[in-house]
């Protein structure tokens, strides 16, 4: 609202598969084929379509882009695989960019997520985080606080900046849904330390990519001006990985480490003083 109140024309995109973005010309949301996507498809198909829609509607040639977490992942995919879109970006503000994530492999919940995704029911590319967690959290004030602590264990603890009164409103919109393949793709880049396309296994990789390993995204093709914002208490996007990413940028415009030591992954969106 801050940017809108200052007179900027603000457009908000919805990632494929969330509660606001489940439309499809041919596929039902109940089908496995609908959920057969990761953030690669969001970056290659969806984000370019969103940008073109905004530019065509507003009759502009370029725009400013603000991405948080996966919103940064998909942006780098777009610019690396469809480099013509670099010319449509005035600036990219990357908040907690989930791009290089090798340091996240020490996260205490990583093995739990991997086991969860090995469940045969889950691995059929059905959507995740589509309601059960939110319903439990909103049962009472006690369950709400329990959920707050559960979220802190994943993203980093910062109780001082957490608005518990607004939490039920947040839960009305977040989590909004994801595919299992998205999560598996993140696990792949965490475990391998390679910001690469989806790994289908050796035989399918040979068929799809003509090589044993999925190709690494070519970061030299990402030429848009990029500003990076990150924090020390982010358990999902480690400070070391962010600084490594910044060193690899072709057109770095600056990096900002939030001075608050407790600032976590979601504080960029949720913090009282965000």
TrEMBL record:
Domain AB hydrolase-1 stretches: 3-106
Pfam families on file: Abhydrolase_1
Keywords, in A-Z order: Glycoprotein, Hydrolase, Lipid degradation, Lipid metabolism, Signal
Keyword Glycoprotein among UniProt keywords: yes
Gene Ontology BP term (one): lipid catabolic process
Alphabetized InterPro entries for the sequence: AB_hydrolase_1, AB_hydrolase_fold
One MF annotation (Gene Ontology) recorded for this entry: hydrolase activity
UniProt similarity note: Belongs to the AB hydrolase superfamily. Lipase family.
Protein name (Swiss-Prot/TrEMBL): AB hydrolase-1 domain-containing protein
Organism: Megaselia scalaris
